[in-house]
Amino acid sequence: MTGSAAIDGTPIFSQLDLVLTPHSWTCLLGASGVGKSTVLRLFAGLAEGITFNGSLSKPGCVAMMAQQDLLMPWLSVMDNVLLGASLRGERADKPRARDRLEQVGLADHADKLPAALSGGQRQRVALARTLMEDRAVVLLDEPFSALDALTRAQMQELTAELLAGRTVLLVTHDPNEAARLGQTILIMTPTGLVDIAAPTSPIPRDIHAADVLRAQADLFDHLRRPT
Ligand SMILES: Nc1ncnc2c1ncn2[C@@H]1O[C@H](COP(=O)(O)OP(=O)(O)OP(=O)(O)O)[C@@H](O)[C@H]1O
């Protein structure tokens, strides 16, 4: 993606130059409101209301997990996980959906409605739904933000395992998450992207690994003084 974007005539970003490395995780951080979700929406082709000037290679069919869980309130947890197949008129792969629910720790909640779940449980249903999809490109907008620290670490590891080999763009506010999962780490600022040296060890990296702690500290310093 190279170009600028505006919403309702208000500039969101200008001359952004973002290349996703295939088969690898790119983590995108940056201050609230800088335009990270707008970038994801453009890549996903959900650009309603956004005016984009520039060139954009759309990655084809993507899986996307938005910041809001977007669960259908009238569908059970299981049917929410099967929603993609249902909307495409495909056969429901219930064993795979049960596996995903088991993996996110919600096997016992399959028959409940979303209203009966906590915020973190709802976010894990949305994660399970995203991980149901078999897509080469996956866009994740703060997918672990509502989770407690331990569950967050477990879901990071699960997601890295299930999306191995995919091209992933992860928006996060968490420097530790970016240091664990990022193979490219970028900070979005009003004047463009800042490339932060990512650890080179395989992902998901150990939370306590020296290279993770170094990258996390480096990122935190850049977020404080992005220029
Ligand atoms: N529907 C909309 N109408 C008008 N302005 C919008 C709309 N959606 C987003 N914006 C504006 O676009 C800018 C970028 O929003 P975006 O959601 O992309 O930021 P973000 O970096 O993802 O923020 P956050 O980290 O808080 O999620 C913000 O200033 C926001 O106010």
From TrEMBL:
According to the UniProt entry, its GO molecular function terms are: ATP binding; ATP hydrolysis activity
- Signal sequence interval, chain numbering: none
Superkingdom of the source species: Bacteria
SMART domains (alphabetical): AAA
The protein's matches in SUPFAM superfamilies, at most eight in alphabetical order, are given as: P-loop containing nucleoside triphosphate hydrolases
Give a yes or no for keyword Ligase in this entry. no
Record's keyword annotation contains Nucleotide-binding: yes
Keywords, A to Z, come to: ATP-binding, Nucleotide-binding, Transport
Coiled coil, from the record: none
Q: Which residues form the ABC transporter domain?
A: 1-215
Q: Pfam families from the xrefs?
A: ABC_tran
- Family, per the entry? Belongs to the ABC transporter superfamily.
Q: What is this protein called?
A: ABC transporter ATP-binding protein
Q: Which organism is it from?
A: Marivita cryptomonadis
